[in-house]
Specification:
The protein is mainly α and 287 residues long. Helix content is 69%, strand content 0%. Helix 1 packs across helix 9 (149-175), helix 4 packs across helix 5 (70-76) and helix 6 crosses helix 14 (248-275). The longest helix is centred in the last third of the chain and has 28 residues, at 248-275. The radius of gyration is 19 Å and the shape is globular.
Length: 287
């Protein structure tokens, strides 16, 4: 069954990735990791997302996360594993996901047939994900599938998120955007992290951001006002198109009807989570 060209991209951005991302801004996550002795938000984030790969060091995380400043990663890894093991971190992350989704969605949604259906559809899509060259996806795919529907949904969206992310890194290398150029050009679309959040979560300072902007201007991708030029918009679209191509298999496997239904169900849960305060209001934007 042929999919409408941008259907998978829209579903991923609107109904899949946001479900996974709820845990990153959750007070429940902070609480669970604090109980392990991990109180720094950057250390918590680095450990949570990398734990599926084992007690890895800064080099592995710099390669697989792509857009974090290496100095920031090295400040916390591998030292974080002296405080908590990967197994403890994975368990704490799932406890945080459980508490977060229950709080954001409420008991009725958690127990609903619609949530169970969304989980089944998302898991079906993951059947066509590929492991080769997909480090973060493959590591998470080795984890057991949870029993409860809301955790199954989060697990499936995590696999789909990391599968697309691994392919996106390949596309970034192909179009020639280094980690900071990728972030700055994404922010210039109005759909990426604001500069405040780039600094807080990725470790870059204003000098780094300014230097990346200068490189993008030299390439004709940004104008003097920091807006994407025509060439910049074309490059960003080429990047997304290549990412779509590398990430097509799960959604082709699900089929048009299944993808539409997942987008409908997942989008409704995302909207409910947003209304409940899942994400900071200043998270995205050009400023």
């Amino acid at each position: 069954m042929t999919l409408e060209p941008l259907a998978a991209r829209r579903a991923w951005h609107g109904a899949i990735n946001p479900i996974h991302a709820t845990v990153y801004f959750s007070p429940d996550s902070a609480e669970e990791f604090a109980a392990l002795g991990l109180t720094d938000p950057v250390a918590r984030n680095l450990a949570a997302r990398s734990a599926a790969m084992g007690a890895v060091g800064a080099g592995t995380v710099a390669a697989t996360f792509y857009n974090y400043r290496y100095d920031l990663i090295a400040r916390h890894l591998p030292a974080v594993w002296d405080t908590a093991s990967p197994e403890q971190v994975i368990a704490a992350r799932y406890r945080a996901v459980d508490a977060t989704l229950r709080r954001l969605l409420g008991p009725e949604a958690i127990a609903s047939a619609e949530l169970a259906e969304a989980a089944a559809l998302a898991l079906r899509a993951t059947e066509a994900c590929s492991r080769h060259g997909r480090t973060l996806y493959s590591a998470h795919a080795d984890l057991p599938v949870p029993e409860e529907p809301h955790l199954r949904l989060w697990y499936a969206t995590t696999l789909l998120r990391e599968h697309r992310g691994d392919g996106h890194i390949t596309a970034l290398l192909t179009v020639g955007l280094d980690p900071l150029e990728a972030l700055v050009s994404h922010s210039a679309t109005g759909k990426g992290f604001s500069r405040k959040w780039l600094k807080a979560t990725r470790g870059w300072d204003q000098e780094d951001l300014d230097a990346a902007s200068a490189r993008l201007r030299e390439r004709g991708l940004l104008d003097e006002a920091g807006e994407l030029t025509v060439a910049g918009k074309e490059l960003r679209e080429e990047l997304e198109t290549q990412t779509d191509r590398l990430d097509a298999a799960p959604y082709a496997h699900l089929g048009a009807a299944g993808l539409d239904r997942l987008a409908e169900l997942g989008g409704a849960f995302v909207l409910q989570a947003v209304v409940a305060g899942a994400f900071p209001g200043d998270l995205l934007g050009k400023a």
